[in-house]
Amino acid sequence: MTAVGSGPQAPASPSAPSRESTSRGWFTALLRRLHFFAGLLVGPFILVAAVSGALYAITPTLESTVYAHELTASSTASAVPLARQVEAAEQYVGGNATPVAVRPAPEAGATTRVMFADEALPESTTRAIFVDPATTEIRGDLPAYGTSGALPLRHWLSDLHRSLHLGDVGRWYSELAASWLGIVALAGLGLWIGRFVRSRRGRRDLLRPNRRHTGYRRLSGWHSAVGIWVVIGALFLSATGITWSTFAGANVSDLRALVGGGTPSLTTTLDGQAAAGGEHAHHGGAHSSSAPTVDPASFDAVWAVARDVNVDSGDLEIRPPAAAGKAWVVQEIHRSFPTEVDAVAIDGSTLRVTDRVDFADYPLLAKLSRWGVDLHMGTMFGLANQLVLFVLAIGIAALVVLGYAMWWKRRPIGAVGSPARGVLRHAPWWGIGAVLVAAVAIGLVLPLVGYTLAVFVAVDVVLGWRDRSRRIRG
Question: What is the pTM of this model?
Answer without folding.
Answer: 0.84
